[in-house]
Automatic annotation (TrEMBL):
Belongs to the eukaryotic GSH synthase family. This is Glutathione synthetase. The keyword Metal-binding applies. NCBIfam families: glut_syn_euk. It is an enzyme of class 6 (ligase). Pfam families: GSH_synth_ATP, GSH_synthase. GO terms for cellular component: cytosol. Residues 221-333 form the Glutathione synthase substrate-binding domain. InterPro entries: Glutathione_synthase, Glutathione_synthase_a-hlx, Glutathione_synthase_C_euk, Glutathione_synthase_N_euk, GSH-S_sub-bd_sf, GSH_synth_subst-bd, PreATP-grasp_dom_sf. It comes from Dichotomopilus funicola. It catalyses: gamma-L-glutamyl-L-cysteine + glycine + ATP = glutathione + ADP + phosphate + H(+). Its cofactor is Mg(2+). Mg(2+) binds at E150, N152, E418.
Amino acid sequence: MSTLTGGSYPPHLDDAPEKDRLALAIKDWSIANGFAVRPPPAIASNDAGILAMTAPVTLFPSPFPKSCFAEAKAIQTKYNELYARISQDEEYLGGLVKQVAGGDDFIANLWNIHLRVKEEGYVQNLALGLFRSDYMVHQDGDTLQIKQVEFNTIASSFGGLSEKTSLLHKHLAKVEYPLLKEPISRSSLGDLPDNKSAERLAGGLAAAFRAYGKSTLGHPTCVLFIVQDGERNIFDQRHLEYALQSSDTDPIAVFRLPFSQVLNHTSIAPSSPGRQLLYHPPHNPSLTFEVAVAYLRSAYDPSDFPTASSWEARYQLERSAAIVCPTILTHLAGMKKVQQELATPAAHAQDQEPGEQATTAPSALRRFIHDEASYTALHRTFTNIYPLDAITPAGREARRLATDPDACQRYVMKPQREGGGNNFYRSAIPQRLREIPEEHWGSYILMEIITPPPVANTILRNGALEQGGVICELGVYGTCLWDQKTGEVVHNEESGYLLRTKGDQSEEGGVAAGFGSMDSCRLV
Ligand code: ADP
Ligand code: MG
Ligand code: MG
């Protein structure tokens, strides 16, 4: 049953010439407009940096409920503020880190970097978040309600390409869909919302760049994108860079530096109490820039830290005067454990059975949100999430559900990781739990699986078409700049959206991980 796929939209194309024409239009528009990724090494073994390939994308914008879209956009600035406050609550985060660190060296190491910097004292109080809150639509009878999948505080990607996806679908709506054998006119398609995600995310970076101010050492200032080696999703990042550089009157200097090269090409200004972060461009040793903003599109996965010096690189950034996006505390605020705490009612520990709908009983959310309207609005977007500790009744009951071969079918188990491909679904949960010592189960959280109303669409991936049932995940970007000491919020904006769509047989939906595709919303 579906309330979204009324009529014949999106169409199921059977006619080969018609499909080929649409696919060709998409392929050409994509390359012509930088809606692209780098090819995998197997294709580009000796790539001289000259190859690009189209990003996976749906042939049609998927139908998405208008009210859900509006709700997700409207709540973003509240989410920004919530996560800014969590980032400021070191004691609270420290307590959660303690709960997961036993089974999670990566989180423990991040926390230790924070402690080292705290000991010598932070020299930068401003913190910048380029966030993305992800949702799926949950159907309960006739009611459609967004439910949060996760909240990303580090390296939230696809803002650059998402703006292009919206433009591509608008182009097809004008030029190609009206030529189909069963034509779709632009007017019958209705509302294809504008999406300025690249521009708005760049706006967040620019706000931090301006707030940093001029170099007191007399250097030109810059924004440094700190990236992964061999990044294939480079154009997504490039679109943000170009947006920062494009102003005729006030262009911002932007550089890219692999995280593995941070210690080779940056330094802390010698004999300056300000601990300014200096960037020395490798191509011209006579140049020195002062880094106003260090924007991490890396350093979120253990594989980014192959050696002890990787941790020294992260330490160098954190202790510097650069505004780091995100700081360690903001990175840790994005732990799934935090999301679970916010969603788990405090009363749960005593008397609520896992599997019941989350009630409005006080949760950790109360610690951060005091006005009733904001509390209710945020709380509505939560689904049930449980700890897997051995102490609370909720944790113990969740352990029973996670190890039961039938009950586990309704859940996904998540570690404190980012970037896709880390979760355990349904039957894989008990299997995974058997592999790890029981005292480390608390490093994971258990979350109910959200099953959105079915939608059909066709995905164009690697030149091939995949037609069938799909699941859509909406992401809303947010940019926020705040003072860690005073709590003052300097900039707080909703910053555009992302729609990702995957085949309904796939558990994971990451585009970069090869499971999902880019999409945009047709509001219904
Ligand atoms: P990551 O930080 O690695 O992206 P996510 O929590 O977003 O981790 O999980 C990855 C993917 O798994 C999501 O994009 C979504 O497709 C799927 N997923 C995660 N949680 C749920 C859930 N509660 N219900 C349905 N699907 C989920
Ligand atoms: Mg994530
Ligand atoms: Mg995700």
